[in-house]
Amino acid sequence: MNVYETPYNQIDFVILxxxxxxxFSCMSDKNVAFVREYLxxxxxxxxxxxxxxxxxxxxxxYETEVSLEDLARNKWILWTxxxxxxxxxxxxxxxxxxxxxxxxxxSLNEYGGEYRMELLDNNFLLKKDCDxxxxxxxxxxVESRVQSxxxxxxxxVFQSRFRQLCEDDIIQLDAKDTALYKIxxxxxxxxxxxxxxxxxxxxxxxxxxxxxxxxxxxxxFQDNIQKAVTELLAQFRSADxxxxxxxxxxxxxxxxxxxxxxxxxxxxLEFLNEKHKREQQSGMCFLGQxxxxxxxxxxINTILNDLDKNAVNPDRKLLWLVxxxxxxxxxxxxxxxxxxxxxxxxxxxxxxxxxxxxxKRTKHEIDGWRYxxxxxxxxxxxxxxxxxxxGNTEILFLKNKFAVVCYHIKLSGYPVTLPLGYxxxxxxxxxxxxxLANSYLNSTLRSFKDNNDIQKDFGILRNLVD
Length: 466
Hints:
By secondary structure, this protein is α+β, with helices and mostly antiparallel strands. It has 15 helices and 22 strands. It has helices at 34-45, 50-57, 61-73, 89-93, 144-148, 150-160, 162-167, 223-236, 242-252, 257-260, 268-280, 294-305, 333-343, 363-372, 427-442, and strands at residues 7-17, 19-28, 77-79, 85-87, 109-117, 124-125, 130-131, 138-139, 178-188, 193-202, 261-262, 265-266, 284-287, 317-321, 350-357, 381-385, 393-398, 402-409, 418-424, 444-446, 453-455, 457-460. The strands form 6 sheets. The protein has an 8-stranded mixed sheet with strand order 13-19-18-17-14-15-16-22, sandwiched between helices. A 4-stranded mixed sheet has the order 7-10-1-8, with no helix packed on it. Strand 11 and strand 12 (265-266) form a beta hairpin. Helix 2 packs across helix 3. The radius of gyration is 31 Å and the shape is elongated. It starts with 6 loop residues before the first strand and ends in a 6-residue tail after the last strand.
C-alpha cells in the first residue's frame, strides 16, 4: 500500500437521472442568436434609439453594442442620421411570408438526441457516467417535487448551459461556434437511469484522522450532491462499537486491533508494523473492504489453484459471512469478486454467500438482497440470522485452507465504517474460525412464524420467499 494513498472505504452513490428526448434548433454565431429575433421583431414594429433597446431588453452598453453589430453585419439594420436604429430592406425580407411577425432566420439547423440529467445539481451527463441499475450503491434521495418538475428544469438548464454542454461533449455538434436558437421538443424518454459516482474515504497516515471527501471527478456543479451525501452519512451514523469488537476479537483469538486502534483513531504506523509481521508469517493485514484487496484475492486464487479438483469432498465449501453494515457491498467491486469465485467452483469447492436477515426474514429484506445480487447465480445466495459476532465481523474461509477476517469498525472520528482485517493460513487459526462460524450457523432460534426452533442458517434465499 502506498502510504500516500490510504483509502479505508470506497462507496458508490447513485442519483436519479431521467432520460430526455430533446430536439433543438441552433445556428452559427455568424447568424442571429435567440434574443436577436426579438430585437428584429421590435425594430420591425418601430425604429428605436440604442438606449431604448437597452432599457427594453435590460442590456448593458456592451450587450447592446454586440447585439446591434451582429444585425448590422448581416445588413438587417441601419442607422439614421440622428442615431436611431431601424430595420433595413434586407431585414424586412426576413418577415416576408411570416404569419406571426417572426423573422425567418437563415442557416437554422435542427438536432436531437437522448440526454441524461441528474436531479440534485442538474448536471447533464455522459452516457458512461450513468447506470441503468442502482445495485451495490447507496441511493441519494430526490424530492418528489423535483422529480415532477424535471422537464421544465431540464429545459432551463439545457438553454442556460448550452455552450458549456457543447464544450464538455455532452452535446455533440460538428461546429463548436454554434448558438442555441430554441428548444423545439423536450420530453422524458423511457425509464430513468442513475448517475453513479464513487467516494473514497481516506485518512492521514501521520495522525490516523479522516480526510475531507474529494470532489466528484468531472462534475462541474456538485454543491447540492455533496450536501445530500453529508446528510445521508450523518443519518447512517451509529454508536462506536469498540466494546463489541473487543468481544469479537477475543472469540477469534486475535487481539492485534487493540494496538492499532488507540484513542479512537487508527495508528497507521502500528498498522504497518502488524502488516509487516503477518507478511513474514505468510499472512496478510489490510485496511478497507475485503473485496477491494487485490493482493488478498491473489493469495486466495493461488490457494484455490492448488486444490485437488478430482478429490471428492462434499464438505469443501467456501463460506463468506457478510456483516450487518449499511456500507458493505455498496460498490460494484463486490459483484466482480463474488462472480470470480463463482466461476472458479470447478476447482473443487462450493461457494456460499451468507447474507444477514432479521429473525422475521421479511420479504422486503430477501427481495433486497436478491436484487443486489440478481446477476449472480442464485444457488450460492444464502440467508443467515443477523448477529454473528454482533454483526460487526465478516469472515471468508475455506475449510483447513485459509480464513479472512474483517472487523467493521465504527468510530465517531470517521464518517463511515472503517474495515480492518487479516488473512491467515495457520491451520490452528483457520480451524478456530471455522468452528466459530459453523457453530453459529448450526445453532437455533425460535421461529416467528410457527414457534418452532429453526437453524440460524436459513438456507438458499430463493427458497425463503413464500
